[in-house]
């Protein structure tokens, strides 16, 4: 029982300020994670082939000079919405037979302040966190510095967290 | 077929494929799609420094690190095997604006004229890459997610906080691209 309480606490802590969280309570051997590596590879290929990771495409988007990025994000959201709706409606389970969990997110001022700060960074680097990894993959080695700096930014956020308005 | 794949993919192919990542990750193992969290897991694994925000069992989120490593590999595969040999075509208005800042190389996804190892040590390069990266890492965590976690996963699940965050991402981006970036690029 003690174990269960700790697991619960740890999930809450991991969920803290994160949209993306591992809801699964199952333990698996490490090689089960290889399927996420494969999804990541496919995702990275799409990123590069659709030029989502291009600094130029991001500049076009924020100058309203191209529909490309709006089309991508918009159609991704529509497909995602339909998928989530279908998963909820038909109570679709994971491949391990687990119930798929969704947690509502609470509003915090961080979504405004942090959102604006990230927006500034997005337009200057031409990349959100995902594209940073893909850009390094395409051979733009200097972007590793941008990635390290983003990790440093995340760390500083964690360090200052209690002092920031939320 | 291969020739077809090598061309830049249109939005109506790429967008739905990106959207399908949401149910794929959920069905494969109850994982909510998100990328910026990987930065937090890297902090938690490498330098938790006794900060409560980084004191959790990051190994339970290791799937996320496999996922982003996959994105890196996917980038390498796409550029080496499926690459489009032609430079990126951009809106002529953008091209003429960027030419004014000396940006004319469209051979890479990243503008080589301003983002390279030499320029890293100039004020312009420092602002673009180091300060820019810092804003991305700090801002995404403060907002609780990035384009994938909020704009795609959060909106897919009809979360109002994610809509607010997405609108703020866009406002920040418009301010930077139209008002601040021109100053940085003129340096």
UniProtKB/TrEMBL annotation, chain A:
The keyword Repeat does not apply. Keywords: Membrane, Transmembrane, Transmembrane helix. The chain crosses the membrane at residues 34-56, 68-87, 112-134, 140-160. It comes from the Bacteria. This is Transporter. It comes from Sphingobacterium corticibacterium.
Automatic annotation (TrEMBL), chain B:
The chain crosses the membrane at residues 12-30, 62-82, 125-143, 163-185. Pfam families: Sulf_transp. One of its GO terms (cellular component) is plasma membrane. It is found in: Cell inner membrane. Keywords: Cell inner membrane, Cell membrane, Membrane, Transmembrane, Transmembrane helix, Transport. Belongs to the TsuA/YedE (TC 9.B.102) family. This is YeeE/YedE family protein.
């Amino acid at each position: 029982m003690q174990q269960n309480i700790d697991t619960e606490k740890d999930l809450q802590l991991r969920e803290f300020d994160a949209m993306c969280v591992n809801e699964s309570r199952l333990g698996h051997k490490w090689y089960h994670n290889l399927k996420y590596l494969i999804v990541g590879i496919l995702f990275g290929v799409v990123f590069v082939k659709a030029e989502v990771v291009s600094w130029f495409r991001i500049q076009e988007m924020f100058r309203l000079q191209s529909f490309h990025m709006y089309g991508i994000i918009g159609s991704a959201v529509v497909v995602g919405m339909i998928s989530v709706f279908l998963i909820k409606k038909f109570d679709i389970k994971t491949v391990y037979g687990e119930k798929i969990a969704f947690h509502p997110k609470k509003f915090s001022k961080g979504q405004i302040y942090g959102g604006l700060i990230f927006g500034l960074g997005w337009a200057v680097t031409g990349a959100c966190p995902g594209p940073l990894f893909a850009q390094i993959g395409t051979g733009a080695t200097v972007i590793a510095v941008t990635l390290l700096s983003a990790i440093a930014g995340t760390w500083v956020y964690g360090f200052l967290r209690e002092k920031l308005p939320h | 077929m291969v020739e077809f794949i090598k061309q830049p993919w249109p939005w109506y192919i790429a967008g739905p494929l990106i959207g399908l990542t949401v149910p794929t990750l959920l069905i494969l193992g109850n994982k909510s799609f998100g990328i910026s969290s990987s930065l937090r897991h890297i902090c938690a694994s490498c330098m938790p420094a006794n900060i409560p925000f980084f004191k959790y069992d990051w190994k339970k989120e290791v799937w996320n690190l496999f996922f982003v490593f996959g994105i890196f590999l996917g980038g390498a595969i796409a550029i080496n095997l499926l690459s489009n040999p032609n430079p990126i075509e951009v809106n002529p208005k953008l091209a003429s604006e960027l030419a004014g800042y000396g940006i004319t190389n469209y051979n890479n996804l990243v503008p080589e004229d301003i983002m390279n190892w030499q320029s890293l040590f100039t004020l312009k390069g420092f602002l673009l890459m180091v300060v820019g990266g810092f804003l991305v890492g700090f801002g995404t965590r403060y907002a609780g997610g990035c384009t994938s976690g909020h704009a795609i996963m959060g909106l897919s699940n009809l979360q109002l906080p994610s809509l607010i965050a997405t609108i703020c991402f866009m406002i920040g981006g418009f301010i930077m691209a139209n008002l601040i970036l021109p100053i940085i690029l003129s340096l």
